[in-house]
Amino acid sequence: MRVLVAEDDRRIAQALGQALAAAGFAIEFASQGEDVWFRGDTETFDAVILDLGLPDLDGLTILKRWRRAGRNMPVLILTARGQWNERVEGIEAGADDYVVKPFRIEEVVARIRALVRRASGFSSSQIEVGQYMLDTRMKQVTRDGLPVSLTPQEYRLFAFMVHQRARVVSQLEITEHLYSQDFARDSNSVEVLVARLRKRLGADVIVTRRGLGYTLGGNF
Predict the structure, then answer these.
(1) SS3 call for 140
(2) Which domains, and CATH codes, for the chain?
(3) CA gap 49, 5 in Å, rounded
(4) Distance in angstroms (rounded) separating the CA atoms of residues 22 and 8
(5) What is the pTM of this model?
(6) Which residues, in sequence order, are CB contacts of 211 under 8 Å at separation 6+?
(7) Which of 190, 123, 131 is nearest to 161 (CA)?
(8) What are the pLDDT tens digits along the chain (220 aa)?
């Protein structure tokens, strides 16, 4: 899952990035308001953490522009402003959640995980997928209560495909949502990863749509 951290305080951004990466997210960073707006308007993210006090262009204006343009990714606002009327303004502008600084990193990670899950139509962190159970909080897949051995990247691919279960996703989209921008990627890394996951969970776990990409198998 790909998350944009839009925060100009480097210390906070790094702490969020490390915690989210440890939770299985692919992280992108932006610190200037105009850049944040442009990336959110032209790229696809599973969620955005948006600081209201960005330079060049404030977070509330960015959020309003996104929503007017039909950009509906989940957005969690970070702010040092604690007044209730400002929180209401942010939510009315289209924010999905709101956290006031200072905050606990663990809470932000949990809220992002919940936003991504709900955006995909899941209410629980435990998602039944065919004969398997995907636990997004524990980052684990089980079968009949027993854990299935998956590498972190295999888990991320399976979780991403489950959250995109109603769609065909391209190889490029999978690459963007599984790997951080600075991660070294081979041209056939997605094909190799798909083949490995099929060996772990079954040949029909991911179906190839020729010329289009991949989709979650019908039995999953």
Answers:
(1) strand
(2) 2-119 (3.40.50.2300), 126-216 (1.10.10.10)
(3) 5
(4) 21
(5) 0.85
(6) none
(7) 190
(8) 899 999 999 999 999 999 999 998 999 999 999 999 999 999 999 999 999 999 999 999 999 999 999 999 999 999 887 677 777 888 899 999 999 988 999 999 999 999 999 998 898 999 999 899 999 989 999 998 899 999 999 999 999 999 998 899 999 899 988 876 655 556 588 999 999 999 999 999 999 999 899 999 977 7
